[in-house]
């Protein structure tokens, strides 16, 4: 019920992770269909970039305002911070406070005078600004870190590398908000450089009791995690896509015209291959550089046919090798018999 600076930081990180999820599973997938020339009706979804920008904008974001207020000379308090946020973010559609509500002629008794509210992707959250400034400026003083670095214990020296006089800096230590922003930025760069997979955990009930399912709670989580839009995109889209070259190399043994080698264009080879396989036309789509298969059932059928064909080819190879070995052995025995017979006649 009471959300402070820590919950604000946690929700900011959740918004950034949700942004990666939206970017990789909703936005990029639909863009790929358009890029590949596949007929596609766009599925509408909410892009939470507007919320992330409200929090982390370099000059007018909430984190920037918080750092600016902490570094400002003079008396600084939660009231002055809230006033600065109202002045800077008051016109944003995802931010509200008592002052912005009064300007819009609204009245909400649940919003206290010392709080502001953000419309997050997963719903509205009210934050109490009390303690924001103190927790953001909770710095480790330079003389304390130097004292720890001067200790004889190697563990302490390793825990406080900033206390090394040779690396001492006259710059102010970074605030908690700037450290969180830098850490989240490094996490996002790491995730965008990979091909992440997602496991969404759904809480079945609030009491953590076994074998109890609260449908309203589960539905709310599914809606707030963006899973409804994701399911709509997956159902309307294609479960499997692959470049023409690797696809043709893997399944070319299913068609006599593409086995063992196809000398023409890769897309033409894939179309020739799939024309020999009894698959429904609506299950396949041919893009500029990739082949798309709609349902996993179709892909499993292709894999099963490939396994059967590989077994047939292995049997054919084994039969050819056995025939060669038997033929070679027979020819050697025949030559030996002729030689023995010739020597025997000469001796007789």
TrEMBL record:
Entry-linked CDD domains: IQCD (cd23767)
Top-level taxon in the UniProt lineage: Eukaryota
Record GO terms (molecular function): actin filament binding; ATP binding; calmodulin binding; microfilament motor activity
PROSITE patterns, alphabetized: IQ (PS50096), MYOSIN_MOTOR (PS51456)
Gene3D superfamilies the record matches: 1.20.5.190, 1.20.58.530, 6.20.240.20, Kinesin motor domain
Sequence ranges assigned to domain Myosin motor in this UniProt record: 1-307
Xref: SUPFAM superfamilies: P-loop containing nucleoside triphosphate hydrolases
InterPro entries: IQ_motif_EF-hand-BS, Kinesin_motor_dom_sf, Myosin_head_motor_dom-like, P-loop_NTPase
Keywords: Actin-binding, ATP-binding, Calmodulin-binding, Motor protein, Myosin, Nucleotide-binding, Repeat
GO CC annotation terms, alphabetical: brush border; cytoplasm; microvillus; myosin complex; plasma membrane
Keyword Aminoacyl-tRNA synthetase: no
UniProt similarity note: Belongs to the TRAFAC class myosin-kinesin ATPase superfamily. Myosin family.
Protein name: Unconventional myosin-Ia
Organism in which the protein naturally occurs: Eudromia elegans (Elegant crested-tinamou)
Taxonomy of the source species: Eukaryota, Metazoa, Chordata, Craniata, Vertebrata
């Amino acid at each position: 019920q009471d959300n402070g600076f820590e919950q604000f930081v946690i929700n900011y990180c959740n918004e950034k992770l949700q942004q990666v999820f939206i970017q990789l599973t909703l936005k990029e997938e639909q863009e790929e269909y358009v890029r590949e020339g596949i007929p596609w009706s766009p599925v509408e979804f909410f892009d939470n970039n507007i919320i992330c920008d409200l929090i982390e904008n370099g000059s007018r974001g909430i984190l920037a305002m918080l750092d600016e207020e902490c570094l400002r000379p003079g008396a600084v308090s939660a009231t002055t911070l809230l006033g600065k946020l109202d002045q800077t973010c008051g016109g944003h559609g995802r931010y509200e406070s008592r002052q912005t509500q009064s300007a819009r002629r609204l009245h909400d008794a649940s919003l206290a005078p010392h709080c502001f509210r953000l419309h997050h992707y997963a719903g509205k959250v009210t934050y109490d600004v009390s303690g924001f400034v103190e927790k953001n400026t909770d710095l480790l003083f330079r003389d304390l870190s130097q004292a720890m670095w001067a200790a004889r214990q190697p563990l302490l020296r390793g825990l406080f590398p900033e206390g090394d006089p040779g690396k001492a800096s006259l710059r102010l230590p970074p605030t908690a908000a700037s450290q969180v922003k830098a850490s989240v930025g490094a996490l996002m760069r790491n995730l965008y450089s990979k091909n992440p997979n997602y496991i969404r955990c759904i809480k079945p009930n609030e009491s953590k009791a076994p074998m109890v399912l609260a449908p309203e709670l589960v539905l709310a989580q599914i809606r707030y995690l963006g899973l409804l839009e994701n399911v709509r995109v997956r159902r309307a889209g294609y479960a499997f896509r692959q470049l023409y070259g690797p696809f043709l190399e893997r399944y070319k043994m299913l068609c006599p015209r593409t086995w063992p080698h196809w000398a023409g264009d890769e897309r033409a080879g894939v179309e020739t291959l799939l024309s020999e396989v009894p698959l429904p036309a609506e299950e396949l789509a041919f893009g500029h550089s990739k082949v798309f298969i709609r349902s996993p059932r179709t892909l499993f059928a292709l894999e099963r046919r490939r396994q059967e064909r590989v077994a047939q080819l292995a049997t054919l190879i084994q039969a050819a090798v056995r025939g060669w070995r038997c033929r070679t052995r027979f020819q050697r025995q025949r030559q030996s018999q002729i030689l023995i017979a010739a020597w025997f006649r000469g001796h007789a």
